[in-house]
Design brief:
AMP binds at residues 465-469, 493. It holds the Pfam family YjeF_N. K(+) binds at residues 71, 140, 189. InterPro entries: Carbohydrate_kinase_pred_CS, CARKD, Nnr, Ribokinase-like, YjeF_N_dom, YjeF_N_dom_sf. Residues 266-558 form the YjeF C-terminal domain. By secondary structure, the chain is α/β, with parallel strands linked by helices. 43% of the residues lie in helices and 13% in strands. It has 22 helices and 17 strands. It has helices at 7-19, 24-41, 70-84, 100-108, 119-122, 125-133, 153-173, 216-219, 270-273, 283-286, 299-312, 323-332, 355-358, 364-385, 391-394, 424-433, 440-445, 447-458, 492-506, 508-513, 517-536, 544-562; strands at 2-4, 61-66, 88-93, 112-115, 137-141, 181-185, 207-211, 229-233, 262-264, 288-292, 316-320, 345-348, 400-402, 418-420, 461-464, 469-473, 476-480. It has an eight-stranded mixed beta sheet with strand order 11-10-12-13-14-15-16-17, sandwiched between helices. Strands 4-3-2-5-6-7-8 form a seven-stranded parallel beta sheet, with helices on both faces. Helix 11 (299-312) packs across helix 19 (492-506) and helix 19 crosses helix 21. The longest helix has 22 residues, at 364-385. It is elongated. Residues 46-52 and 242-257 have low confidence and may be disordered. The protein binds ligand NPW, adenosine-5'-diphosphate and potassium ion.
Amino acid sequence: MIEAFTAAQVRAAEEPLLARGAPLMERAAFALATVVVQDLRRGRRGGSDGGAPARRLAGARAVLLVGSGNNGGDALFAGAYLARRGVAVQAVCTSGRPHADGLSALRRAGGRVLDLTAPAELARWSHVVDTVLAADVVLDGLVGIGATGALRGVAGDLVAALADELAGRAARAGSRAGLPWVVAVDTPSGIGVDDGSVPGPVLPADRTVTFGAHKPGLLLPPATHLAGVVTLVDLDLDLGLAGVGGAGSGPIEPVGPVGAAVRRLERADVARLWPVPGSTDQKYTRGVLGVVAGTPTFPGAAVLAVSAAVRAGVGMVRYRGPDDVARVVVSARPEAVPAEGRVQAWALGSGVPAAEERAALRDGGGVRSAEAGQHERIRYALAVACGVLAEDVAGPRVPAVVDAGALSLLPERCPPSVVLTPHAGELAGLLRARGDEVDREDVEARPLRWARRAHDLTGATVLLKGSATVVVGPEVTWSQADGPAWLATAGSGDVLTGLLGALLAAHGERVVHEPGAAAELAAAAALVHGLAGTRANPGGPVAALDVAEALPGVVAALLHEGDGTRHRR
Ligand SMILES: NC(=O)C1=CN([C@@H]2O[C@H](COP(=O)(O)OP(=O)(O)OC[C@H]3O[C@@H](n4cnc5c(N)ncnc54)[C@H](OP(=O)(O)O)[C@@H]3O)[C@@H](O)[C@H]2O)[C@@H](O)CC1
Ligand SMILES: Nc1ncnc2c1ncn2[C@@H]1O[C@H](COP(=O)(O)OP(=O)(O)O)[C@@H](O)[C@H]1O
Ligand SMILES: [K+]
């Protein structure tokens, strides 16, 4: 698992070390330079990978983009180290007061320095852009965790010009070959370090070398897509104790949330979470998932959600819906049982229009009444899942996945065992229905903010789908970016619904009683969904049903990798 900590948490954790005189900047800069040396030796340029033969450092060119703070200091000290190894180093300073010791170190090592704020240099702007883009490697040390808002002034102008020119050259050449390898120092300058927003120009990094701990913006969309490969440099920060909101009671006041601000599951975490049957299990103990999905107009969504649940290894699927849709579902997945009965979780709403859309879809009374029937079933399941119906009437509370049209049928408040799975447009609609002025673009620009808002308003766990998936539950936030962009295809979200439903059904009781459990399982579902997208057709287009069909192979591989004993039981 990757854990990310806010700028304030990192600062609080570094304070006691700095007070003891720990040379954090020297360690950070040395580690940064070491990574850059390895990248240069592998011949990395413009996103090309390390198959190339080892290169000599002498003659390589590095440009440092240097701001006014310690982030620039890191870049300057790393540059001094590179210069001593024979790299031709040029610092481009966007502030008249770069880190003084770093600047002296670079000069002593033979590096050159250009002050972009000097009037003579401002006139040579295009020459500066050319110099930067002719380098083998660019170290982006403009701002790190001290950043506030979009990059301003000379730094903002320079990055806007560089990012534009880089994108233009890559588009004209059809590849990034020949363009410099960009290494972000601590964070790509200009991202929202704590919230993953991208409020202004940012130079996309091929690699980010981050110090002490991952930062939320490296994991959260949209900024996560600008960070490249993230390398963590361990600085022995104690992030588990006082000062970062943990259990300890040291001299520093707790700041920010308890523990990590944002987490990301990795492949190795899945074995711990995946329901593996034991020798005494039977289909009912493995979890029964009730699926209310599809209408005569959209039967495919039901097939996809049911297929994914079956392929994910659920004990049983009970399909609930109109007879003609049930026939389609059973002919595609004969395992599905089209009958009422007890379930351990619900998957609701895929392929069912929203309440307010229903009247607009006109195709005669049959479709209307089929839709009304689905809405009725969803309302009932939600009443059980949200504890609106008493247990002696409806049986014990069970978790639910709430997708597509079911989002419009949500009660005012839900427990966190109810997981909403909107995409950005659906989340905006849900929030507008509750009085917020927000549209799809707002959600895409600040996914964390709006997913949190939806969690606060509804109480439900919120899984916001997109190029990266953000999951917000009580006290926990996850961000997963595991799938290829090929997953952006109709029906792919329905597969996620069925897959997550299978996980919730297997862990039903725990999910109802542990407030953060649904969020972790939702993150696991997003991870497995993403991996299945790749496995379905590595590097090429995928159809949603292929993603569902790839699930058994992905799960088996993860169980084998994770814990050698679990998959054999
Ligand atoms: N934590 C650790 O363990 C370690 C931390 N270390 C390093 O320290 C870094 C943090 O250093 P930091 O505190 O000096 O802040 P930093 O990010 O360099 O920028 C601050 C200056 O930038 C400016 N500025 C701000 N916003 C701006 C904007 N939008 N657009 C333009 N300019 C903007 C603003 O200056 P001003 O504009 O006010 O003059 C401000 O003073 C951290 O990221 C890591 O690299 C390592 O060395 C050791 C271990
Ligand atoms: N650019 C992307 N990269 C990776 N995954 C993506 C991308 N765009 C969308 N996805 C994923 O594809 C799925 C699309 O779901 P959704 O929008 O609900 O489609 P549908 O409603 O047609 O099933 C989600 O799981 C989402 O996270
Ligand atoms: K930076």
